[in-house]
Specification:
Strand content: over 45%
Helix content: under 10%
Distance between the termini: 55 Å
Largest sheet: 8 strands, antiparallel
Structural class: mainly beta
Number of helices: 1
Order of helices and strands: EEEEEEEEEEEEEEEEEEEEEEEEEH
Bound molecules: manganese (II) ion
Radius of gyration: 19 Å
Oligomer: single chain
Amino acid sequence: MQFIDLRKAELGEGFMVGRALPTRERRLVGAWCFLDHLGPVKLRGHDGMHVDAHPHTCLQTFTWMMEGEILHRDSLGSDQVVRPGQVNLMTAGRGIAHTEDSLQGEQLHAAQLWIALPAEQADIDPAFDHYPELPMWSQDGIDCTLLAGAFGGRQAPTRVYSPLVGLDLHTSAGGQTRLPLRPDFEYGLLPLSGELRINEVDMDISRFVYLEPGRESLDLALPAGGRCLLIGGEPFPGTISMWWNFVGHTREYINQAYHDWQAGSARFPAVPDARLRMDSPRPAWLPSEPAAT
Ligand code: MN
């Protein structure tokens, strides 16, 4: 097991999140390549989360809502609120742009993940899917929701392109259970609320734990009100590059996406009703532009 401290990151203006992936220690868990823990944050007297129009490539954004509501709008014309217990899944493929805004409510609590697309799917058509209902069951006092992939004979409806799994576990009264794992998968577990025990080790929301392939089970104990997110998948074939909101299998692919976004190319149509369009930072590996004379 590898324990990784979450790092603080800013998402939209002044909205801080805990980032579990990517970190210096670990970039991927299966095809999962990004994991932000948003909140829980009280929205009274808080502006909430507002992210202006920005592009994505070669990935899927996966939003899992626990408290509050987020409005998603994208360059396909999608306009969809995601509520607790639901998933918004945006497939960027060759290119998409979107905005995200939290709506008024008491509290906001969500997990936002990215799934890297395999090289064969890097340039598929962009798509957006909303999943209002997901498979749910209880075991040993713990309520489980299957967000992606297959687990324990159940199958989530979410559209994914790699062998992977995502599972939310929470309990009001507390519970402990043994979860079956696939030895060919690697896994990551993120505490979302409360202090929990994983294989007899204490964890809280400040840390993420990575589990290498080869395991057949995981022992988990959650306190009353405890919650965590289990992700996993087959180790991703090859390597990916990431820069800002772009994923690609080569730096050349990302350079092109950067130039296309900055030039306002039709690859990234406008998002209806967007306030502002974010500027991409120049990839650090590109030589700097010649100074204007
Ligand atoms: Mn985004």
